[in-house]
Amino acid sequence: MTADRRRGRLGGPGPLLEATLALLAEGGPAAVTVRAVARRAGASPGTVSHHFPSVEALLVAAIEHGTDRTVALLERLALDLQDTAEDPAAWADAFAAAIAHSLAGQRAHHLAEFELKLLAARRPALAPAADRIERAYARIVRMSLRALGVPDLETATVRLTAMLTGLLLTELRRNDLPPAVETRLRTALHAELATHGLSLP
């Protein structure tokens, strides 16, 4: 037995959750089976069943695991954007660059996130974790728009959050190089901020 396989057999559930997210990104919910997760994690099917009594329980844990990572990423991004809080153009440019970098480096994670959101629409047990992702995006958008002095903050937050969701999905489908992604995101963000009366170059 290899060291990796021993760790998968004896360790905690982390590798199983990562394997689940990877399978979701590659093939959607149908790709997530006990045997497939065990094979990807280098564990035995019995190890998966020991930690998770059903595929449903595994998916619930995976969405929570993925949500924790997404929320942490967004919170770091919010801190990084604090220095641009009074400059709409600088904020849009920094946000576009951060998202383009994240899409390039963590494409599978973002794909899994969208798969989990769709799955939550069909499985109520997954909805609370999916809602946490939406609230995290809305929180960083609201914080930034408030700092930028956008009027009608709640409407602007809903609009920009929805726009970002659509842009992320479109860019995942394109799977383009980061500079092109960043340019498109920056253009869209500049245009959206301008509709709220902010002055951009």
Automatic annotation (TrEMBL):
PROSITE patterns linked: HTH_TETR_2
Cited InterPro entries: Homeodomain-like_sf, HTH-type_TetR-like_transc_reg, HTH_TetR, TetR_C_31
Residue intervals of the HTH tetR-type domain: 10-70
Keywords assigned by UniProt, alphabetized: DNA-binding, Transcription, Transcription regulation
Claim: DNA damage is one of the keywords in the record: no
Gene3D superfamilies on file: Tetracycline Repressor, domain 2
Membrane-spanning parts: none
Keyword DNA-binding assigned: yes
Domain of life: Bacteria
Protein name: Helix-turn-helix domain-containing protein
DNA-binding region positions on the chain: 33-52
